[in-house]
Amino acid sequence: MTTDTLAKPMMFDLWRQNHYIYKDKYTSHQTSYIENLLPEIAVQLNVYEILDILQRRLGTEILQKALDPNQLIQSPVSHYQNGNWLKKVNMVGINVRTIGNFFNVIKYALTIPESQNSIHLLPVWEPGVVGSLYGMTSFNINPQFFSHELASAIPQLNNVEKQLVFVVNVLHAMGKSVGMDVIPHTDRFSEMVIANPRFFEWIRRVGGRISSHSETLYREVEEIIWLYLHRHGTANGSPLSYSRNVFFSPEIPILTDEQRLEILFGHKTDYQGRLRRRIELMQDIVYQGYETLPMTMAPPYRGLHINHEEFILDNNGNRWYTYEFDEPQAMSRVFGPLARYKFYHSKDDNAQWKLDFKNPNKPVWTFFCQKVYDCQKTYHFDFMRGDMAHVQPRSDGVPKEIDEYYDPLRAVKKYIQKQGVPYFGFFAETFLVEPDFMGYGDELDHLEAIEADSTLGDLQSTVVGSAEYMQKIVNYNHWLKNRKFAPNYTLITADKDDPRFDIFYQTGNHLRFFVALFLTDMPSYMSLGFETRNLHLERGANEEYTKLYVFEIQDDAAVDKVTHGVYTWGKNFEQFAMIEQLRALAENIWDEIKEREVRWLLTPSENQKLMVWTLQDHSKYVFVANLDPNNQVDESVLKEVTFNHPLTLLFDTAPELPQHECRVYMLN
Questions:
Q1: pLDDT in tens, 438-480
Q2: pLDDT by residue (tens digit) across 644-664?
Q3: In this structure, how many other beta carbons lie within 10 angstroms of the beta carbon of residue 279?
Q4: How do residues 390-440 score in pLDDT, each as one tens digit?
Q5: Which residues contact 166 (CB under 8 A, 6 or more apart)?
Q6: Which of 492, 531, 423, 494 is nearest to 110 (CA)?
Q7: Domain chopping of the chain, boundaries
Q8: Average pLDDT estimate for 226-243
């Protein structure tokens, strides 16, 4: 019988026998989370139990305010004058698709303590091809995330938008900041693409060959869409009493974007009708040889051709060819289902695939910034996670002078702050790699240029204690002190919970969590599921990996990616029990240690795998993390760095997990 087999009934029995005690401690403010509540149990609690818990914890008045879609509960970070608060948060990322709906976010959040004080929601928009959350097809909230359970109990929360307002309200009342994904690209035939062809790049294709990639191809696409409207009529029955140019031009504001979308596709609540019209329009455009240029990543970004021998057929018989770089580099990637906004006009009608960075496509910037702000304003988000923030397409690297059109994510942050939300923060998706690898120039300079407050980094893609891990820790500590952004101590992300990366998380997970909590001057990031993630010494079922729920692939031929049914929570109850111990430890001392600067007693290096630190202006506690799996803590070294000061051991992981030992001492 395995440890997990024994641990499972113990964990479930512990909850069944003591759940009322744990809930009472939470509702009476003795704890900031519900202890020993497994996430898989939490998301199964019924709506009335959850509402009862919230009412007892928050009070009737606050809960009633949260339930009112027209009211917003003040964010716990709204008193800040900039986004610097992001530099010290411990963030939890949630792919809503893994837990089914927005209401389950609240259930899951009951398991998250005060020491993990920020929630990042992966994209909440309607998805497009293969259901990718990052291939948004509209700025409408994903109807998949609607909770019928919540709507039945609270009839006024009768649509997904109202439910999202409620969820953010509750998370704010729980003391959590809440962030959204901001995505500078869309599905290749999204509603944004068809409603605004001039906001995207187009190619004309003849068979498996690009016959034109002119800057002005959008005019021909607009004509195709205009003729469709004359043949089939408008979706909302309104007359076309204006010209094609008036309909599409952002400089002639006769129609709002919402009106244009209703004319093309219909009311946003008519999901099937909108989908049908969008597919019909896509068919017309593709049939005549036009398609959006797919999005690229990493240098050289530009210069594509079609591999005429590689293509897939969709359900409508369309042939989608594979695009390739003319001169690929190490990280060059083409994302076939996605199209990036055309933020810049091209040089010489795009004859040589060159962008003119001195000639921004200003209406696109205005549109993009306004759309994101509309969402922030409606749902009261506190920060954005900027997707693909590493994109820097200038071959000369980061320029010395940074203007307002340097980067769209930077523009969004500054736009929202200027609208009266000065605390709005920017959490950037970059990986802190060497220059000219993921983007042209130095990624560190780029992060400062885009005014990112913190960045994801790539620590999660290393084995604890390995040479690569040690080098990253050294670098991150240096950048934390010497750069304007803060790198994250990242445990795992929703897109690294993937069978390809199992080796990273087979050892040292409790140490990752320990350092994330107690290295109090560095932000951290953990995605849902880490608490009980199976070690996967052998590959698990697809349903055990959150990455495979970022998209929805129905094709059983894609055996490594297709999922059947709901996400399966891991059964690593030993790991969960240790994380609960670490959370309880943090709970007891959090008010004393949170956000304090670290004072290193033994700084990690490539050859020094024992980390020892205390806190500036508060050296009451000493934290020890042993990154070396092959050796125990060297007691003589520990005495030396603490100057033989008498220490009382408060916590030690060694009795249960001897490898990668973590300790906390109190100075006598």
A1: 999 999 999 999 999 999 999 999 999 999 999 999 999 999 9
A2: 999 999 999 999 999 999 999
A3: 14
A4: 999 999 999 999 999 999 999 999 999 999 999 999 999 999 999 999 999
A5: 66, 67, 69, 102, 150, 154, 157
A6: 531
A7: 3-127+139-181+366-387+402-427+444-456+468-593, 191-360, 598-667
A8: 96
Structure tokens at 555: 């094709």
> SS3 for 379?
helix
- Is the CB of residue 105 less than 8 Å from the CB of residue 171? yes
What pLDDT sits at residue 314?
86
With CA atoms as reference, report the closest residue to 325 among 301, 349, 308.
301
Give the tens place of pLDDT for each residue, 148-192.
Answer: 999 999 999 999 999 999 999 999 999 999 999 999 999 999 999
Long-range contacts formed by 311-320: CB under 8 A, 24+ apart: 311/208, 316/279, 316/283, 318/283, 318/286
Say what angle helices 257-265 and 271-287 make with each other, to 10 degrees. 80
The residues near 387 (Cβ < 8 Å, ≥ 6 apart) are 134, 181, 182, 183, 184, 185, 429
Query: What single-letter amino acid sits at 484?
Result: K
CA 155 vs CA 40, 147, 360, 367, 565: distances in Å: 26, 11, 46, 34, 28
User: Which pLDDT belongs to residue 251?
Assistant: 85
Ranges of H-type helices in 235-337: 244-248, 257-265, 271-287
What CATH class is the domain 3-127+139-181+366-387+402-427+444-456+468-593? alpha beta
Beta bridge partners of 490: 525
Residue 4 has pLDDT above 70, yes or no: no
Per-residue burial over 329-351, b if 16 or more Cβ lie within 10 Å, else e, is eeebebbebbbbbbbbbbbeebe
pLDDT at 315: 82
Query: Looking at the predicted structure, is the pLDDT value of residue 9 above 80?
Result: no
Return the residue matching tokens 């008045």.
61
Span 271-293, average pLDDT: 97
The per-residue DSSP string of 465-517 comes to TSHHHHHHHHHHHHHHHHSSSEE-EEEE-TTT-SGGGGGGGSS-HHHHHHHHH
Residue type, 398: V
Compute the radius of gyration of the chain from its Cα atoms.
26
Q: Using CA atoms, how far apart are residues 155 and 534, in angstroms rounded to an integer?
A: 39
The percent of residues above 70 in pLDDT, for the chain, comes to 99
State the chain's mean pLDDT as an integer.
96
Q: Do 406 and 446 contact (CB within 8 A), yes or no?
A: no
The helix (H) or strand (E) run that includes residue 662 is strand 662-667
Residue given tokens 């030993």 in the structure block:
574
- Residue of 400, 455, 404, 393 whose CA lies nearest to 425: 455
For residues 200 and 340, give the distance between their C-alpha atoms in angstroms, rounded to a whole number: 7
Tell me how crowded residue 66 is: count the other CB atoms within 10 A of its CB: 24
Nearest Cα neighbor of 378 from 419, 425, 422, 426 is 419
Q: Give the rounded distance of the alpha carbon of 651 from its chain centre.
A: 33
- The β-bridge partners of 127 are 136
- 635 burial (CB, 10 Å; 0-12 / 13-18 / 19+) is exposed
Sheet holding 610-615, edge to edge: 598-602, 610-615, 618-626, 662-667, 647-652
pLDDT in tens, 73-124: 999 999 999 999 999 999 999 999 999 999 999 999 999 999 999 999 999 9
Residue 5 confidence (pLDDT) above 80: no
- Residues 60, 68: contact at Cβ < 8 Å? no
